[in-house]
Amino acid sequence: MELLQRVLDGSLMPHGHCLLWRWDLLFLHVGGDTLTTLAYFAIPAVLIRLVRKREDLTFDRVFLMFAAFIFLCGVTHLISLINVWHGYYFIEGLAKISTGVVSAITAIVAWRLLPIAINIPSRARLVAANEELRVAREDILEANIRLEEKVKERTAQLEALAVADPLTGTFRRSYALDTLREELKRAERYDIPLTVAMIDIDDFKVVNDTHGHLAGDDVLRGVGALLNTLSRDSDTIGRFGGEEFIIVMPECDETQGLLAVDRFITALREHQFTLASGETLHVTCSAGTAQADTDVTEAELLGLADKALYQAKKDGKNRVASCTDSKSSAQNNSEPEGS
Q1: By residue range, what is the domain housing residue 99?
Q2: Catalytic pick among 243, 251, 270, 335
Q3: Catalytic status, residue 243
Q4: What is the mean predicted confidence (pLDDT) over 181-205?
């Protein structure tokens, strides 16, 4: 109890006596301590608010220790301000020793955290790292775009391989038949003409037997290329068999189909194949056409074109015949003599 009374004893000589109660000295000391006290009490409030608002701060406890250290400094200045008129020097001493202890602890903690703090990236390093990440991200995006383009290109190649005949460059039989089926539906729905042609290379077995199968492959490639060159964009050309091709010609009647196929037969007749051996070779083909009627199926239409092809072969090859011609020829052959 006596110790507490001694601590709270403010009857010691006020500090104002040391200043001789001169107004100029009082103004400097009182004004300085007042401003310092206000600042030292405001700074801890700022630090505490910062720690509460920023939960991501790594050294939040160090901020709080700095706040306690600064607050105690403010307390010492406040007591110094009071001691101008009252002599609470024991309280001032306790405040100073408390400030010293907290200051020492804060200094030790700050010193131990110095290596970690030094390794914290500077703003310039963060900006540089962000730039590196941005460049890396753009590189990844470009790589992904290139990869997607390659995937699309490869997908297109695979799709083309799935429907294309690798030897002749025309479509596979299944794709041509699927197209014929769809075009038949469209022709019936919109009442538009549709013609199908069957083309067969004349005496192809002789080519293989005489010049070899590699020469036969060259001929098949050349015929396929010529068909693709002379056909319309809307036509579908497919390899139907070994040396037999099918042409699906939408919005094309029988007369137009005959003219188109005859143009190809003429071009093939004049085309010269140069074999790997240096030999030259000419080939011809025969063809049959058929125009779709109402309710005709793809099998029936192909059968009519095949009969017309047979008629062209029978008539001497190197020509085109229509299903109408083959029907007329069949009727003439079936009439009795003398009729």
Answers
A1: 2-119
A2: 243
A3: yes
A4: 94
